[in-house]
Structures are given as C-alpha cells and as structure tokens.
Amino acid sequence: MGRLGQDLRHGIRLLARNPGFAVAALLVLALGIGANAAIFSVVNGVLLEPLPYPEPSRLVRVWHTPPPEGFPGLKTFAVSPANYLDWEAQNQVFEKMAIIGFTSLNLTGDRAPESVRAARVSGDFFAVLGSKPLLGRTLGPGDAENGGRVIVLGHAFWQSHFGGDPGVVGRDIRLDGEPYRVAGVMGPRERTPDFASAWVPLVWSAKERAVRSNHNRIVIARMKPGVSLAQAQSAMNVVSERLAQQYPEDDKGWGAVVKPLRDDLVGDVKPLLLVLLGAVGFVLLIACANVANLMLARTLARRKEIAVRGALGASRGRLLAQLLTESLVLSLAGGALGLVLASLGVDAIVALLAGQLPGSAEVHLSVPVLLFTLSLSILTGVLSGIAPAWGATRPDIARSLRLGSSRGGSEAGGRTRGLLVVSEVALSLVLLIGAGLLIRSLWLLQRVDPGFDPKNLSRMAIDLPESKYGDPQRRAAFFHALLDKARAVPGVEAAALVSDLPLTGTSNWPVAFEGRPTPPVSQQPNVVTAIVAGDYFRTMRIPILSGRAFSTSDGPDAPGAVVISQSMAQRFWPGEDPIGKRFTTYFASDKPRQVVGIVGDVKLHGLDVREPVPAMYLPLEQVPTSEMELAIRSRVPNVLTAAIAAVRALDPDQPILESGTVEQLLRDSLSRQRFAMLLLGGFAALAILLAAVGIYSVLAYGVRRRRREIGIRMALGAQTGAVLRMIVLQGMRTALVGVAIGLTAALALGRVLASLLYGVRASDPATFAAVAALLCAVALAASLLPAMRAARIDPIRTLRDE
Questions:
Q1: How far apart are the C-alpha atoms of 699 and 269, rounded to whole Å?
Q2: Given phi > 0 = left and psi -120 to 50 = alpha, else beta, which region is 541?
Q3: d(CA 683, CA 32)
C-alpha cells in the first residue's frame, strides 16, 4: 500500500507537470467514459433494473395468439373478457390474474376540463403486482361491486393536479360528471401500464362478461412459486385448446402466449439500446487507443528515466506497476469528468425519446451506473496503459541509456502507434457506416408517401363520456355540430371526423362475405376499420379510385355502406370490381354493407411498414361511437384555437384528449429512428475526430523524431513535394489498412442494424463507398499538417544542431 501511495502521488505530480498532455487525455477519456455511462444508465433503467415489485421474475403478461388466416403477420393480440375469465378459472399455474382496460375520464371542477388517461383494472390488479400505495389504499374486488366510483391516483398526476396534498385521500373529485372517491396515491415508481395517470375499478355487466370476440384488454399474472415460464406456457396451451373445442365459433384458432412482464414492457426498444451500447463501446476502444498513443509517446520520451530506474535495481514488475498506476490516475480522473457529461447526456436521451422509452423514470445515475463507471475507468486505464508500459520496460537498459530519450525505441514505438491508429480507423469506419445506413434509412422514410397529404392539416381528439352522451343520437348531434362550427372557421378548407387517424392506432373488425361460406367469427379475416364523418377523404386528400365517398344519403336508416381501400379490394376480390359487393361486419352486424367506393391505401401502422394494410371505412351515422378525431385542413395557422373554442361553446365541460398537426404526428412516428440516427451519428462523429487526432499525433510525433533524417534528405536534394508525399503516404497507408479492416467488420456486423433500417440493405455499396471516401479524406487532412511541418524543416539548422 505504501508503494501504491508513492506511485499515485508520483503520477499526480507528473500530470501536473504536463498539463497539455493531461488535458488532452482527460478530455478523450471523459468523452469515451461519459458516453458509455450515459447509455448504460438507459440500458440499466430500461433493461436491467428490476421492476419495482416483489419477486418481479414471477410477473408475466398473457397474450392471445390470433389465427393466422384472420390476422396475417400478427403474433400477439389483446384479450377478450370471457376468455380472461375462463383463463382465470381454469389455469393451475398462476397465483393471481388481472385484466386491464383503457379509458379517458373527463376531470372537471375548479380548473379547465381535462382528460385523464386511466386504466380500468380488475380487483386483483394491485395484488398481482404486489404494489403498495404511498398514501391510502389500492383497489380491491369490492370496489367494482360497489359501483366503481373509486380512483387511485398516480404520483405525477397527484403532484401536478393536487400539489402533493396528502389530504386528497378520501376526497371526491368529479370525473365524467360523477363523483369519484380518492382511495389512495401510488409511489413514483408505479408504471404499469405506462400510459396510466390513475386507476379505476373495471365494472362489467353480465353481457360484457360474456363477450369473446372483442379483444381489447391487457392481462397480467403472477406465477405460483416454483412454476417456470415453460410450465405456464404449457398450461395455457391446454386451456386454449379446451376453449377452442368448447367455443369453436369464437375461439377456434386462438391460443395464448406467456411473456415475462419486463420483456413485454421493454418491447422493440431493446435492439436499439443494445446497438447503441455496442456503439459507445467502440467509442471507448477508440478513446483507449488514442490515449495509449499519447502515453506511448510520453513513455518513450521517458525511456532514459525508466532505464536509469532499472539500472538502479527496479524490477520490471515494479516499473510496470508504476506506469499502470499513472494510467489509472488519468483514467479515474477521466471517469469522474465523464460522469458529469453522462448526467447531462442521460437527460438529453430521455428527452429525445420522450414517451417512447419504457421505464424512463428509472433512468438516472444510480449506484449500478456508478459502479459500472468505476469499473470502466479501471479497465480503460489498464487498456490504454498496458501497451506503452510493456514497451517502455523491455530489458534493453544499455541501449536506452546510450540513445537517450530522443531516439530510443522509435521503430518499435512507431509500429505500436501505427497499429493503434489502424484500430481507431477501423472502429470509426464501422460506426460511420452504421450512422450512414441510419441516415439513408431515415431520409427514405421521410420521403415515403403516407397515402394522404399531411400539410396544413391539424388534428384534435375528443372522447365523449358515456354518462353524458350515452344516447347515440346525442353523440351524433354533438359531432355534427362540431363539424359545422369547424367548417365555419375562417381559412378552413375542409373538416372531417375519424375514429383513428393513420399512425395513431387501429381497430380490427372481422368480416364475412355474401355469397361465400361463412366461417366462425374466430376464423373470419380481420380488416382495419375506421369510422368517419364529413368529407373525410377530401380533407385528408386520400384519392377516390372508384365509386364514391359517403354522402348525406348514408344515414342511419339507409342501406349499409362501406368504402374500402385498394389493398382490401385486391385481397378479397382479385381481378373483380368490388363496387356493389356486400359483406357483414361482426361488430356492426345489424345490416349488410355494400361497397360504394374504393380509395387509395394509407400508411396505418407506420411509414416503415412496406406491405399495404387492407382497410375499410364506415359512416358515423350508421356506426355511432364516442371517441373521434377532428381533422381540419386550413390555409391559416392556429386554427386549433378556434376549434377548441368551438368544443367549449358546445360543451364547457368537454376536454380535449390531445391536439396538434398531422405533420408533427408523422415526425413523432419516426422519433425512434431519428433518435438512433442522432446518437449513432454523434458517436461516429466523435470517433472520426478521435481517429483524425490519432493519425495526426502519430505523424507529428514521427516527424519530430525523424527531424534529423528529413533534414539530411533535404540537404542532399530532396524536394518539398517529395517530403510531403512521404509523410502523407505514411498516414494514408495506415488509414487504408484501417479502412480495409473496418469494411470487413462492417459487413459482418451489418446484420445487427438490419431491424432498424428501411429501404436500404445493411451492405449498401453506396454507403460503404461514401463512408470510406469520407474517412480517407479526413485521414488526408490529418496527414497534411504534419507533412507541411516536415516540408518546412531547415536542413542547415538541422545539421548545425547535430
């Protein structure tokens, strides 16, 4: 420990005497370690941090698996009430099960009306999770039996709306015009499901409990102690087969799949985070190589000092320990500075991903992150210090003493430094190619035709409460009055209503075609369905390819009408004219529907979904619903202010769910791809900067050590151009070797990015060529400065100094 203390003090003194070297190395290490700490904070919070519940490994989510003939391409689906009740009664592997529904409640009172996103949960929901309230109590089975006018508040909602007042427990608040008693407040880590600001009891009528074909609920469960995931899956397979035999009309072909709750919450963000974690690992390796180059130059300059120590009896192990301790001092200081950068980076990452990052509340610089940073700093110190220390302590004392510090070990040191630069260039190229592929992918996505014109198009979502607008005629009257007021706003070209705007979610309805065998509902093909009112297709500028749009003649007493998409026409009536064809829909089976028009396909599930999705549109007058989105096409900005005022004029207590522009909706749909591109692009830019610094430092160091040789060459007649070419070619040879290795590595690692790309192959030749050319240009620029310095060497002065 005494020797360690001596080495630490000695290392600190050396850094203080060489501030230029210390600052350069500290900045490089801080950037590398800080980037890793920031990304690991996100990975830890989202992927590794245990869920905030007792024994979280026993928590699972249970999905339906739909019949492939009805839902092509879909692997999982939501659950119907009756099937959930049968699962709960018949399974032998779950301790408890709970089901979750979605709702929006209109909060009224002293402030402006506001929509609250809430989860309707069965009585055992909090018992399944094992959640404990911060204040009051949670919900139980008795709350549904007593009418369900009870609410548990989320922590953020409690803070923002009630100022963290503990006295809110036991108080009544008005939701949908009804008094709800506040039973309790949950802690800040409660986040199941992610969208919920509050929880209310799920109240079902006898009719609703018997529904099997309407799949729109989430199911969670807690496995019994000792039950494995495979056992739970096997048991649910047995239950699903039993239900398929018992209820073939509704359940034939429907199965169940059991997934760990954490995996389900993480969703498809996991591959992206792992790619980014690998990318910052590359950045750290580049930083290590860069610092190793700096330290190698420094240790070679100290070769005579080290030789003297060896001659006086210091063992090689003792010298290695001292040099590695100096490297560790540097890396630990870099790690401390990196934590400061990481704290800023974590906030930026969470803000960039906004609501698309599950478990964002758990993303912070926690104890595991601090331990990770400490371990990373130590590892970085060893990686960046081992090569210089090993080379500087080789047993060649006599030669080192004879040559001194100016020329000793140039050949071996130059070879090592060259290899380090090659590795920097190769790693930088891999990152640059990854960033280039993501940039091209996002560029192509932004140019995808969504099937409608988003320019000058605004949106506003409204959900009418059942307690006030339970009468379908009253709902229809409200929406038609809203349309009239929206059209009357100056500058509005067109306005319409739709149940689900593209990219905001979809509803799938089974269909059965007239003149064909009618399969059971469970095996009927499902089609994305939207309910519209007003001139929807003109407002969205969706082209009508054949037939007509809806008109005032398609009223509640008129024959059933439907407009279908081009892909639906091609799927179900290939080679035929669908106009006039008839079919029924299970969820609006009061009358058969006749196809009156065919419209163009629209990107419903995402701009990156290549295959068109069959869709159909039904008139609101014939299929009344309570939740709609108002779409307004206008020539003037701020049209939403007038639209919101129109809602207030119709019903002062009616809140707006959300509002904005459709162009922003499209941008938000690409936020994950944009986030990946920005972050990987930033890492690539940092990597190429470090690589350029590495090339420059190696050549500059080489020029300084070869000053005598270059002076003699010029004294013997070497031209300036020849000297320039010699130094530039030396740098370019190193860069080209790194580019060749990097291209090979990028080809091998391209498959990792495949799931994040759209319209571009992971081995895209144009991207590979452009990135290789860019890196070569950077290497050329980094080589020119030392080459120009070499060309300005005065041969007379050099010879005089010798």
A1: 42
A2: left
A3: 9
